[in-house]
Amino acid sequence: MIPLSDTKTSGSFPLWVIIILLINIWVFFLELTAPNPDLFIRKFALIPALVDFSNINTLIPFISSQFLHGGFIHIISNMWFLWIFGDNVEESFGFFLFPLFYLFAGIIGGLAQYIFIPGSSIPMLGASGAIAGVLGAYMAIYPHHKVKTLLPIFGFFTVIEVSAFYILFFWFFTQIFAGSASIMADTSSFGGVAFFAHIGGFIAGWILAKLLQLLKFI
Questions:
Q1: Successive 10-residue mean pLDDT values, the chain, 218 residues
Q2: Where do transmembrane segments lie in this chain (predicted)?
Q3: 52: left (phi over 0), alpha (psi -120 to 50) or beta
Q4: What are the structural domains, with CATH classification, of the chain?
Q5: Residue 146: phi, psi to the nearest 5?
């Protein structure tokens, strides 16, 4: 299932979503044009084996890694999901809270991945944990919104409207399934995908959105 758009657009200009999009695109350009792209990535990506909680310099990648991407498909898919679901979440959280929430979800996603693979020397990069937080918040706040979705049926593609709850629950379930499988298999066979960052970010986003709803902040 490939989401194309949600049928309920926000009533405000998604300034932070656009800023985050532009920052990610700019950093990706810097990656591509760096004299040594591998060195650039290793400098700013999260490498679990190098994390030392007594050394703040090793913790900075929990944030900087959120703006790196491993290729065109990686950044396009992340930014596509942010564009579709981010505007409504930004509207609900507000101008000051949304960027803090975005970074927080990304940090929790990074921590979740670190907990499961603390000795890994594979660089972890991408906005997936933060984007997953946006998806979790969207599911918590707008479960009944309809999402136009490209769906393959009997070898043909068709566009249908699916409840946000079902499409995001399906996405979350696939991350749990893939993450569980990656524990029992060689992680290299999964292309180094940070499934637990997705799971951690999603749960953090859902819980925080529900908590803020309960406290009447959103």
A1: 85 94 96 94 93 94 94 93 96 96 96 90 90 97 93 83 92 81 52 78 96 90
A2: 13-32, 69-86, 93-116, 122-141, 153-173, 193-212
A3: beta
A4: 9-142+163-214 (1.20.1540.10)
A5: -95, 140
